[in-house]
Specification:
The chain contains two helices and 21 strands. The chain has 334 residues and is mainly beta. The strands form six sheets. A four-stranded mixed sheet has the order 1-2-3-10, with no helix packed on it. It is elongated, with a radius of gyration of 37 Å.
Amino acid sequence: MVNRAHIAREDRDGDGKWALILVDLDDLSEPDQAGEDWRTSFRYRPNEIYWFDGAVLKSDSVSAHRPPAVTTALHYRERVRPGAYQVIMNDPGRAVAVSVDGKTWTRFAGGSEAELGTLDARNGAIEFWVDTAYPDPISEGPVYFDYVRLYPVDDASSVDRLFHAALQRPGELTRGSVDEQRVALRIDVPRFAGGTHWPVRSGLPIPEGELATAEHAAVLDARGTPVPSQNRTMATWPDGSVKWLYLDFNHDLSTAGEGRHTVVYGNRVKRAEPASRVRPLERRVSARRCDPPGAPLAENRHHTPRGGKPLTGRHDATGAAVVTVACVGRRCVL
């Protein structure tokens, strides 16, 4: 509070000051069942005011209407991080006048929280004035100042700057700072007969500047033989070097669940290429209608690209690969 002279520790109605009321919250509520904490289960009495943290500022009783003024108002100021905030004040209990600039005033009726709107805090402070200027037509009494809730509001210009900065790509790095670096990689999973070519995926953090591209990394098995892998860069350092390296490769779990591999990276290292690649088909396999429903498996044929190899072990005399199509009802799927 800026004008602390307007606050008194004694509650004397009519002294022109806001009284600081301190209460024991345990006296305002009690458990429904013995042994339970009142904060999680208590008997609610709607006529009680459950003050925030056991403290509230209480004004004099308002008996006459008068114009609000900063000289008589409670002056609130809070230091915040610069930016815009949606500001909500507690339910004052009765009508109250609030000004966010010290000049213009807005009347907020009691019975619900007072939404003050979005306030600009580029100077690092939220500030407003609260004055008691309106008598209650039903029950004459004070108003209460209890708490303020702040919600940061997105600043469009800041968001744009953030996205533009994120979109900026660093320059391509042609050479890292190390020629060869080795990292041990251990696989420890249950052994099973069906895991002949079981896929393994691993992420590896790389110090800044050491690795230029993911292609300068390879996986070696326990005998030191390069293992074909797929390498990806998941994050980069500001200089463009690899920060997080993502590796996919195969491990034979049919012989042993445990495996010891080595990831080697650097300027002298090249990724191990697979022995063969899958070639794209010249045209898609066309599905046919199966009639009647539940008919047995059918066979469709498609041609492989010129000079390529069939994707399956079965092919006819014309060189067309045989693909099995399963028919369920009226639909056929590969």
